[in-house]
Amino acid sequence: MSTETALSDMSKPPFYVKTSEKRPIPVRALHEHLDGDIEVESRQSVEELVYVPNTAVEKRMIRKVDLHLIPILGALYSFALIDRSNLGYLYVSGMDKDLEMYKGSRYSICLTAFFIPYIMLEIPANIAIRIFGASRWLSTIALLWGITMFSMSFINTWQGIAGTRALLGALEAGFFPACAYLISCWYTRKEMQLRLACFYLMSVLAGGFASILSYGLYKLDGRNGRAGWRWILFVEGLITAGLAIAAYLLIADFPDKNRFLSVEETKLVIQRINADRGDAEYDQMTWSKLRAYLCDFKIWVFGLLFFGSTVPSYAIASFSPIILMGQGHSIVASQLLSAPPFCAAVVYALISAYACDKTGARSAYIIGQAILCVAGLMMIGYAKTYNVRYAGLFLSLMGCQANIPAVLAYQSTNIVRQSKRAISNATVIAFGGVGGIYSAFTFRSQDSPDYIPGLWATCACEFLIVALTLWMAYYFARENRKLKRKLRGPIEGTEGFYFTI
């Protein structure tokens, strides 16, 4: 018996919980009634137990899902982020002189070339993952962008770099939103941010050590007549391609198509998702649904929040080596000094994600982390001593890197139905691509070494986060109150669902 057949009746709505209200309610509202004794009934039987949370079986199943999902997705995305963000290291490793990248806006154009196809292809790519399957789709595009990185090491013009980065953007468009969507289909709302943080922050940590890797590869400068920056592209492309081949065998598919859980464990996954939000079963995407989803203002607000979170992330990743060189550091020092702030950001963001999942207070953390980022940016721009400026890198990275998984979780926990979450994740992450373009053109070479206009443009994005998050928190609280007073219909069309604030 296939997993899909065995689960065909587990994701449908005949499962009910008997409560003190003396009426059956849908099982997806179970989380509202966990304080008392729980009896479960179906239309056929009052004896059948549907879902009891926090059992030893459930905890073992969650650990198994964690191990099959988070490490391999995090490893692949680590190289995705390294591949897209290493232009700053390539620049200071000799590409600026070899390809005359220092002239005019060539460097910014090469940065921007990645993001145009990345933004345009997010939604189609996130629909494709359901058509081709997670392991096939994600491993194939990763293999192709690894080959693209490898090929860039042979290019001799800045226009060629811009063109291959555009191809890289088209291929990577299908990865990050697909991973966020896949993770959101496996976990309940109170488990989601920590998993998104672990997945994403693996790449942040790798990004910090990418400077050390880049320095090691740069030391090959002149070997076999190849420049150091070419060795960086050559080796990182090969590593990505090799990891993609392994990923085909390792990546877990969606719950209804997975191969690593038993039928009973898969039933438990489906039941707990339905208890949390009632959308364990995939609902087919249609044009009418797509139009309706894109008319939901919440998706666009979440997109603006993600835009504001990614601007400082991209800016610091792309320009911190250049900023550090502008402070008088050598190539070696500028690359090595870029790593410690990323490590600190990972530790802080994991603690923040754990706290958010435990408390459910996502809005307050997002606002606080945006303010922390602003404080760090102001230290970078206006402090008189180098040590204080360097400390500003720590604070700004801690704030913005923690907010990226926080905003993704804020979005995913307030969107119901798999098809809608696929569109929402893609749209929101596309705004992150806009953030990459924005950061590329706000940190201009003529503003070196302090980049004050770019820092203020980045701070404006953090102020936008604070304002929009306050507004959304008010809106969500108001709608929750209306639902409790029976002044409105079900939120997101789902009985028992409340917005997460």
Account of the protein in words:
This protein is mainly α and 501 residues long. The protein has two domains: 3-42, no CATH class; 56-493, Growth Hormone, Chain: A. Helices cover 70% and strands 2% of the residues. The chain has helices at residues 3-6, 56-85, 87-98, 106-120, 122-132, 134-152, 158-172, 176-184, 192-218, 228-250, 263-276, 287-294, 297-326, 331-336, 339-359, 362-382, 386-412, 418-442, 452-484; strands at residues 15-18, 24-26, 39-42. A three-stranded antiparallel sheet has the order 2-1-3, with no helix packed on it. A hairpin with a 5-residue loop joins strand 1 and strand 2 (24-26). Helix 9 crosses helix 17. It is globular, with a radius of gyration of 23 Å. The model is unreliable at 1-49 (pLDDT under 50).
Task: Write the CATH fold name of the largest domain.
Answer: Growth Hormone, Chain: A
Helix content: 55-70%
Beta-strand residue percentage: under 5%
Average the pLDDT over all residues and give the rounded result: 84
Structural class: mainly alpha
CATH superfamily of the largest domain: MFS general substrate transporter like domains
Low-confidence segments, given as residue ranges, are: 1-49
Q: What is the CATH C level class of the largest domain, in words?
A: Mainly Alpha
What spatial order of strands do you see in the largest sheet? 2-1-3
Shape: globular
Q: State Rg.
A: 23 Å
Number of domains: 2
Instruction: Note the main sheet.
Output: 3 strands, antiparallel
Count of helices? 19
Spell out the helices and strands N to C. HEEEHHHHHHHHHHHHHHHHHH
CATH architecture of the largest domain: Up-down Bundle
Number of strands: 3
Q: How far apart are the first and last residues' alpha carbons, in Å?
A: 41 Å
Membrane topology: Multi-pass membrane protein
Transmembrane segments: 69-92, 104-125, 137-155, 167-187, 199-218, 230-251, 299-324, 330-351, 363-383, 389-410, 422-443, 455-477
Pfam family, one: MFS_1
GO molecular function, one term: transmembrane transporter activity
